[in-house]
Design goal:
Elements: H1 11-38, E1 63-64, E2 71-72, H2 80-87, H3 103-115
Antiparallel strand pairs: 1-2
């Protein structure tokens, strides 16, 4: 590779050099992608080639504000509206969707009814 003094080149020469570099990089990229396809790693999705099954999936709302209708799934940080209500002295259970019983309790009740 030749040493080029970039400061001494004119603008058209710099632009020409830039296009030459772009062509070389595209060719090298094509070669590397072909090699990667040969060894069976052509997929995208992160550094390891894996993607999460959970990421982006929707979760049913667990809590609902009775006046505004805002919901929160119970995952991640506490929703702002719920945090304000908790600070005002209310309980999280007051905002549960579906009669205020957790899903596990409902499932246990169904199993018990089936057994009888």
């Amino acid at each position: 590779m030749s040493n080029v003094n970039l400061k001494s080149l004119s603008v058209p020469q710099l632009l020409s050099l830039r296009s030459d570099i772009d062509v070389t990089l595209q060719a090298r990229r094509s070669e590397l992608q072909a090699q990667l396809a040969e060894i069976g790693g052509g997929g995208g999705g992160g550094a390891s080639g894996r993607t999460s099954r959970i990421k982006g999936s929707k979760v049913a709302a667990k809590y609902r504000h009775p006046k505004t209708g805002e919901t929160w799934s119970g995952r991640g940080g506490v929703a702002g509206w719920l945090a304000a209500e908790l600070k005002a002295g209310k309980k999280r259970e007051d905002f549960l969707i579906g009669g205020g019983k957790p899903a596990k309790a409902k499932a246990a009740k169904k199993r018990k009814a089936k057994a009888e």
